[in-house]
Amino acid sequence: MNYLEQRFSVQFNYKVFFTSDLFAESNKLLENFLAERKESGTEAKILFVLDEGLVTANPSIPQKIRNYFSNADSFQLVSDLIIVPGGEAAKNNNIYFNQILEAVHNHGIDRHSYLIAVGGGAVLDLAGYAAAVAHRGIKHIRVPGTVLSQNDSGVGVKNGINYFGKKNFLGSFVPPVAVFNDEQLLLSLDTRNWRSGISEAIKVALIKDADFFYWIEDNVAALKDRNLNVMNQLVKRCAELHLEHISGGDPFELGSSRPLDFGHWSAHKLEQLSQFTVLHGEAVAMGIALDTLYSAISGRLDGDKAQRIIQLIRDLGFEITHPLMQVKESGSPLLQGLEEFREHLGGRLTIMLLSDIGKGVEVNEMDPGLLEQAGEQLHAISGAGYSRKVTA
Amino acid sequence: MNYLEQRFSVQFNYKVFFTSDLFAESNKLLENFLAERKESGTEAKILFVLDEGLVTANPSIPQKIRNYFSNADSFQLVSDLIIVPGGEAAKNNNIYFNQILEAVHNHGIDRHSYLIAVGGGAVLDLAGYAAAVAHRGIKHIRVPGTVLSQNDSGVGVKNGINYFGKKNFLGSFVPPVAVFNDEQLLLSLDTRNWRSGISEAIKVALIKDADFFYWIEDNVAALKDRNLNVMNQLVKRCAELHLEHISGGDPFELGSSRPLDFGHWSAHKLEQLSQFTVLHGEAVAMGIALDTLYSAISGRLDGDKAQRIIQLIRDLGFEITHPLMQVKESGSPLLQGLEEFREHLGGRLTIMLLSDIGKGVEVNEMDPGLLEQAGEQLHAISGAGYSRKVTA
Questions:
Q1: What is the mean pLDDT of chain B?
Q2: Which chain B residues have a beta carbon less than 8 Å from that of A348?
């Protein structure tokens, strides 16, 4: 056979910094980071994309950003800070994607410039995607503003927007050059958003780190009391587990496996069915509950352990199911989520279940009958109150 | 400092196959390639994007493709072959990009499916970009249909479309899973397109491989006579040098250097100024001539060698300059190409020049006065005929 073979590898690395009040004049972390990376002869422009919800909750942020860069001679802040709606709205409408591209075009942002996105996961996804494709890649920095984005999506390598009504139909795998987790931004979250991201910590603990699961159990009261120190520990350990997973596995998801999506096939579908009135983290909590019970009913996981997991989820104040989360063996909207999950992964269905607390196991099919049982039990537990024994 | 560090590398590899009549029923190369990569439990769909110009020149191609896949039970050909205009038109208008995405959406093309693009560099760029971002990356296969795409753009890792009137404003670095260079497609090229791609071979020879330059000199007559065997040798060596460059350097262009863009700053601008009536390869031939003379005038390259290079370009039938290629020290549209090149690279201007045949040298500025001299000499040589001595 007549051919040439091409073979190369590309090295990626970035840091996830933990700080407080990133844009305070006295905080030199970001300034030093940018200064160290400055190449002689280049003029680095900086374009900000801010989450409207975050700005509403922290109205001083835009002015703090302007002040922060007013004395940084070697960087040129684009004074028009772009503000886009938070949540799925940012990803559903093409106009925000185009708005960022237009700013890149009009302000001559090049590959040595930075796009800094500050906000929840959806805004980071949107801005990261725009940065990934403009000029085949502008450096981008993420400043996640929620628990969910600080411990999960914001530290990873994926970005994207929705298209044709399909979640993340367009996107790419492009790592940020840095992530800055600012604890101050968590203080302005409402109760639902404070709690919501904790479900991703439970998820990654369940499939990878039993000790982390028990630590969360021990800290339920502090987390509910909005203890920032405890939340920081949770965020950091969760981020660390996500980073390790990415670097140890298949960072750009060239295969079919997606272990970190434990509990997510139903969560994604529920978000969509509820028209995103259920937050991602809330849906993930319900998705974990469903697949945990399914793991027990299908004989993979000890019933007492399943109960313990569901109890933790409820102790934190999460709902464990939802009227739209009904699974019918004969077919239900939620069950279509399995097929959509398969299609998005491509190829073979691969679902993560549990064989123990801290131990995931992958399967390639789910039994609709057992799934219906799991769904019904969850509804029963949810209605019957707290301490009902899971039968498995 | 409080941080986590992420570090990983991603391995890429793909083959560039050389074959004849890829879609002939008797040619099992593509079928075997797909069969070997088939994962059990997956259903691979295949979506074709064809270059209209190529289909016009090879009207049997669509039917041959349908026949080829009619017996391949394990693959499902999407029977609507997408046909888009060739050349920059494919990249200038968003509707072709959307047309491909809509097909991906409507036919449920997933990450285990293939998008196969057949055509010139522009169509490959467009289709590769759509494949790169749909579902964060569908596998794509390139079947380059021109000399230029078989020996240069088609074998590389870049893709993209034009936006806001800027060439490749949107794009990404995503390698194909395979490239199939089909010599039969070259036979249907008109004289301009047959010749055009040879300039990229001259370019890469000049900066990397003196022996290849002399080989091209020895084969001018055969190349002009459309000797397919000699052209195959040229395409293969040129593709090989490009592949080696990519794997040995900075595949995703994270730095500012772009050695393979020798002669390209003025070529890109000329293409645009001429509204793409000058073909890319023709513009590159003129760009090489300009930067070769500039290399001599600025004292880097021996004058006789500069003359020898320009003579080869002319012997092949290329023009060495163009009325729109005037450089004025006081400013000219062409000179703006330097600034646009800097902006697209990002940061510092980096231009490849020559210190010898087969030896490139990078510089960070060009002297407009000397550039004007080089431009004027080229016009004079061009007007004065063949054997005028280059003065340098």
A1: 92
A2: 39-42
Intrachain domains A15-188 and A192-384 with the same fold: no
Question: CB of A392 within 8 A of CB of A296?
Answer: yes
Q: What share of chain B in percent tops pLDDT 90?
A: 77
Q: How confident is the model at residue A388 (pLDDT cuts 50, 70, 90)?
A: very low
pLDDT digits 0-9 by tens, A36-57: 988 776 778 999 999 999 999 9
Interchain CB distance below 8 Å, A15 and B7: no
* In B211-345, beta strands by DSSP E: none
Which of A5, A7, A9, A10 should one mutate to test binding to chain B, selecting the residue with the greatest count of B CBs within 10 A? A10
State residue B386's pLDDT score: 44
List CB contacts of A105: < 8 A, sequence separation 6 or more. B163, B164, B166, B169
For residue A330, give the amino acid letter: S
Burial B1-18, CB ≥16 within 10 A → b, else e = eebbebebebebebbbbb
User: Is residue B236 pLDDT above 50, yes or no?
Assistant: yes
Q: What is the ipTM of this complex?
A: 0.92
Contacts across the A-B interface (CB distance below 8 Å): 211
Query: How do A351-356 and A359-363 pair as beta strands?
Result: antiparallel
> Domain spanning A15-188: which CATH class is it, in words?
alpha beta
Say which amino acid occupies A145.
G
Q: Which residue has the tokens 């569901």?
A: A310
For A165, nearest residue in chain B (alpha carbons): B105
- Tens of pLDDT, residues B6-64: 999 999 999 999 999 999 999 999 999 999 988 776 778 999 999 999 999 999 999 99
Nearest CA in chain A to B246: A8
**Phi, psi (rounded to 5 degrees) for A53:** -65, -40
* Residue labelled with tokens 């900000």: A48
Nearest CA in chain B to A162: B135
As a whole number of angstroms, the distance between CA A299 and CA A367 comes to 12
Contact B5 A15 (CB under 8 A): yes
Q: Which of B6, B158, B175 sits opposite A246 (nearest CB)?
A: B6
How does the average pLDDT of chain A come out, rounded?
92
Domain ranges of chain A: 15-188, 192-384
Looking at CA atoms only, how far is residue B349 from chain A in angstroms?
Answer: 9
Dihedral over Cα of B95, B100, B103, B104: its sign: negative
How far apart are the C-alpha atoms of A317 and B65, rounded to whole Å? 58
Determine the topology of domain A192-384 in CATH.
Answer: Dehydroquinate synthase-like, alpha domain (1.20.1090)
- The reported pTM is 0.93
On the question of pLDDT at B389 being above 70, the answer is no
Does the distance separating the beta carbons of A136 and B253 come in below 8 Å? yes
